[in-house]
Write the structure tokens for this entry.
Amino acid sequence: DAGVTQSPTHLIKTRGQQVTLRCSPKSGHDTVSWYQQALGQGPQFIFQYYEEEERQRGNFPDRFSGHQFPNYSSELNVNALLLGDSALYLCASSLVGVVTEAFFGQGTRLTVV
Amino acid sequence: QKEVEQNSGPLSVPEGAIASLNCTYSDRGSQSFFWYRQYSGKSPELIMFIYSNGDKEDGRFTAQLNKASQYVSLLIRDSQPSDSATYLCAVKGGFKTIFGAGTRLFVKA
């Protein structure tokens, strides 16, 4: 049973470019949350998707957008990249109604130069 | 005031000792509380969750919750060098989970 998978694992982009990160949830999970983790910090909640809708959003600008597909997989898009967007981007999946987002993917390390 | 606060550490304990990790949170409406372990360069992995006042034990780990004091703690008994990691406290209210910055734990052999 595959866990949460994210792609790519590493990415280098230039300031001002756009990036798309992908996440496939654990089998049976229908909810996907995205987090940004800067070096030395805890994960910061970006947003959560359920039934292809953004259910809640953290304190991130509109440059950060997302999408959830009918198969529950999800994308995180970041436009007009800034140097400060360099971070580990984590996806976590869960099943609606279950308390905990127990399963994180391995993350995508984004470096903006 | 940060929403979830943890001492950044590092907390250093000898092998076999009890490690005590603490966390405070600001939102009284928070409903669920979690401890994650994160090894360097890896993603967080869930150790325990708790949502009722009191203690919850799982093997060498005990989580403690005091909602009146807005305080969560994690005790690790018989600490092992493999427990050396960053421990993240997370608090959930509604659909949003807020993480602390983590406490680095070193267990000396």
In short: Chain B touches chain A through 22 residues (CB under 8 Å).
